[in-house]
Amino acid sequence: MIRPNPNIYEINTRVWIKRFGKNFKISDAPRGYWLDLKNKGIDAVWLMGVWKTNKETVKKYCFEEWLVHSYQRALKDWSEEDVIGSPYSIDSYEINPELGDELDLLKVKQTLNEIGLKLILDFIPNHFSAGTSLLKTHPEIFLSAPKQFYEEDPHTFFKPFANLEKYFAHGRDPFFPAWQDTIQVNYYSNAAREFMINQLLKLTKFADGVRCDMAMLSMNNVFGNTWSGVLSSLDITRPQEEFWKLAIEIIKDYRSDFLFIAEAYWDLEYELQQMGFDFTYDKKLLDRLLNSSPDEIKAHLHAEESYQSKSVRFIENHDEERAMRSMGKQKSKAAAVVISTIKGMSLYYDGQFEGKKIKLPVQLGREPVEKEIECIKEFYDNLLVIASHDVFHWGEWLMKIVEPAGGSDVTHKNILAWRWRLSTDRRLVVVNFSGTKSRGRIRLDVKEYPPQFKIYDLLNKVEYIRRKEEIESVGLFVELDPYQSHIFSF
Description:
By secondary structure, the chain is α/β, with parallel strands linked by helices. The chain has 20 helices and 22 strands. α8 (190-203) runs parallel beside α11 (243-254), α13 (283-291) packs antiparallel against α14 and α17 (329-340) packs parallel to α18. The two termini are 30 Å apart.
């Protein structure tokens, strides 16, 4: 089993593998690379984008104007050869031959497990590539539609075979136009549900868990509302049971330690947790770290502890802007301290520890060269060692109240603070999440401590002597420059 409050590291596999040289397979990655991640406190590696894609779909759909603009922004010297298609428009759950074969994937899993790391792979429930080979072998699992839907909305519906009058829906999120490089799985179909559960069973051999792309789209209400017109025209009725509840129960019966991580939005995270997901995305925390006040961040962290412990905290991933770009150096460091020291799963993205700034479109297979920012690397090296301590994973977490430091100063409202406790180990995390120098006082339970004792700031490597009487009566005084943090051991 994975430890509480684990750390997961996402790798854009098709791009990352090229750093090791030409014709490398994923099993060729040096063992030392994985050991370094383990030593940083990483618990699981998510190899994003290992599945087989469809080259014809790439040619047909991956050169739209808006995509070309994104390629130009990220990679000035890009060429058509660099466009390898979305890793979320897959042909089938077979490893991309450019990365290796099934044996290579099993070798990676074995290596990671020997080191003490879990392997997480993608599960893309909502759709497959519009050109998937499954259209010929398993057409019954996809959402078909009467011809009139195609004639009225050829962006959402398509005719995959020139010689057959058969029409299908592209995969979609109800708030955006359809993804034309995909075909929609029909979650009101028993055949589709059985097929997708069998794919999950297959993945238990190659991985220790799955990150489920846009997991909420497979929920009965969401699927029904998205495709109500087609479903009613075909007289397709809603299933009684939720797909995820059924699927997760079956997989957990087969392998109880298999992890389910949901990419989820729209306030449906709690419902997905109730259906069996071990972890669900916490995009709201990222939004609050980007745009909200410290008070709103505090309110978010006051959510039910059982919910928080199943939340995935992140400040960047393959869908989001790089933190260095969206927040800047100091704010991104403060945000990293937050996500690394609260309850839940902490997600880090390859390149984050080096301060990368360029968000690479997932359709590109080559990355630009970026200079490593040494102070960011040093910061993460230090933070990850600190946050890997057992107290942050097995300890008791408690949000602390920050009181005014005195007079009319109200900057204490800018300060976030929480305490961890495990046996005799104590940690106090204090973050000034504002652009203003801020000060405040924090009361701590130090009744068992001597009249004077040492308190050590692990993050900044500074030791202080503090009086027990002061901390108990008025609280520990803290003063922090904009977006600066303390992680005290006492």
